[in-house]
C-alpha cells in the first residue's frame, strides 16, 4: 500500500474512531465506506455493509439501497413498498485488494461470487452476512411486480495500483462477467468499475466536502436587502437546471431536506399524488402556477452572471415537490416545466427556522406541529452540543451535516434513526419493533401522543439514549464485548435504566425529574469500568431469559422483549 493511501486509511480510522486490525481488513472498511458514501448520501455504519471473513464468496462489501435507503431488514422493504407504492433498487458489490496489481484471476473470483449471489441454485458456501443479504435480495426480487424499473447492479474491484485501461485480458474478463450478470435479466443496468489508488483517494476526499450545486438561473429577480440575509432571489428554474440541485451524478436524490425526521411522505400521500398527476397531465406546463415551489437556503454562493454555485445548502420547503419531481425525472413532460424557486443565502439559524415554518403549508402538516418539530430538532441538537462533561456527541438532524467537519468523530454522530430506536427502546420498551423504522415507528412522529419528539418533552432522556447507543457501539468496536450480541443492541439498551438506576422512569415533561433521573446514569456510562459492567449485566439477563438471539423471527417478537424483562432480577450496577 502506497504512503498516500496509508495516510488516508489512518485518517478514516481516526475520524471514525474505529479500532484498526490489519492492513487487509482496514483497507476493506476504508474502501467500503468510501465507495458507498459516494453512492449513498446518508450516514451509515460501515460495519453493517462489510462482509465477515470466511465463506464470503469473494465479496468484501454489499449495500442494497431501496427507495433511497440502505436496507438492513426485510421489514424495511415492506414498509417502503407500502409507503411509496413501488421499489427502486440498487445493488452495490465491492472487492478490495491491498496489492498494487489488477489480476484477472482475482477479478474473476469476485464476479463469480456476485453471479453466485443472484443464482437460484448458489454453489458457493455462504457465511451469515452473505446469507442475510441474499435473504434481503430474495425478498426484493419476489416483489418484482412493484419495481419502478429493474434494479441497478454496481460492482467495484479496488486495489492500490494503477489500472491499465488497454490491458486486453482485464477488459475481456470485465466484459465477460458483465454479460453474465446481464444474462440474468434482472437488471436495468450493470456497471463494472475498477478503482485504483488515485481514484480511491479522490473519492475519499469527496466524502469530506460540503454539498454544492452549479446551475444556470436566468428567470429571476433579486430581492431587496433584508436583515439577516446575505442574498435572496425569486424565480423559475427549468427542471433541467433544478435537477442539478436535487440529483447527484449517480442519479440519486440528494439528502438536502431540512429536519429529515419524516422526509418524503410517499407517493400515496394525496398532495404528492396530485403533484404527480399534474406532471403527467397534458397541461403540465401549469405546474409553475399550481405548485407553491421550493425554498432553498444556502450558506454561501458564487455567481457569474446567470451561473450560480451554492454550497452547504438545504431545501427547507419543497421536500415533497422535489421528491415527486425526482420520481418522475424520466418523464419527458418535465422538460417543459419550470419550478418556482426561492433562494436565500444566510448562515443565520433563526432565519432558516422562520423560513421553514412560514413556507411549509402545502402538505397536510399543521403549522403548530411543524414549528414544534423544527424547533425540537434544533433544540435537541443544541442540547447535545451543550454537554461539556463526558462524551461529546453530535445529533445529526440533517443527513451528513457533519461530513465536512474534521473535528467531528463519525462514531459520535447520533442520527435520527439511531435516536428514535434508542429512545423508544428505553422509554417504550419495544426493541422488537425497531426493524419497522420506516413504518409504524415513525408514522406519527412529532405529534402529541406519539411518544417521541413531542413539543413538551425534555431533552435529557434523548441524550441518555444516544449516549447508551454510542457506548455500547464502542464496546463492540473495541471487542470488549462479543460482537455476536450486536444484533440485540436495542434489547441491551432497553435494560440500561433498570440496571443503572433504582428509580422509575420520570415523566418526559418534567425537566427537573428527567435531569435528576438521567444524570446519575450518564455518569455511570461515562465511567469505562462501570459502563462495561452495566452492559455485561444486560447480556447476562438476556442469556438467562433463554431466548435464541440467532433466531431472526424471535428478535422481532413482543414475546422476546417480555421474557427478557421477566428475566431481570433487580440487578444493579
Q: Can you walk through the features of this model?
A:
This protein has 573 residues and is α/β, with parallel strands linked by helices. The chain contains 20 helices and 13 strands. It has helices at 3-16, 23-39, 74-84, 104-118, 128-141, 168-182, 197-206, 239-246, 270-280, 287-290, 319-327, 349-359, 367-386, 416-427, 460-477, 489-500, 511-525, 528-544, 552-555, 558-567; strands at residues 61-66, 69-70, 89-96, 152-158, 189-195, 212-216, 219-222, 231-238, 294-304, 307-317, 338-345, 394-396, 413-415. A 6-stranded mixed beta sheet has the order 6-10-9-11-8-7. A hairpin with a 2-residue loop joins strand 1 and strand 2. Helix 4 (104-118) packs parallel to helix 6, helix 15 runs parallel beside helix 17 (511-525) and helix 16 packs across helix 18. Residues 361-372 have low confidence and may be disordered.
SSE layout and pairings?
Elements: H1 3-16, H2 23-39, E1 61-66, E2 69-70, H3 74-84, E3 89-96, H4 104-118, H5 128-141, E4 152-158, H6 168-182, E5 189-195, H7 197-206, E6 212-216, E7 219-222, E8 231-238, H8 239-246, H9 270-280, H10 287-290, E9 294-304, E10 307-317, H11 319-327, E11 338-345, H12 349-359, H13 367-386, E12 394-396, E13 413-415, H14 416-427, H15 460-477, H16 489-500, H17 511-525, H18 528-544, H19 552-555, H20 558-567
Parallel strand pairs: 3-4, 4-5, 9-11, 12-13
Antiparallel strand pairs: 1-2, 1-3, 6-10, 7-8, 8-11, 9-10
Helix pairs in contact: 2-7, 4-6, 9-11, 12-13, 14-15, 14-16, 15-16, 15-17, 16-18
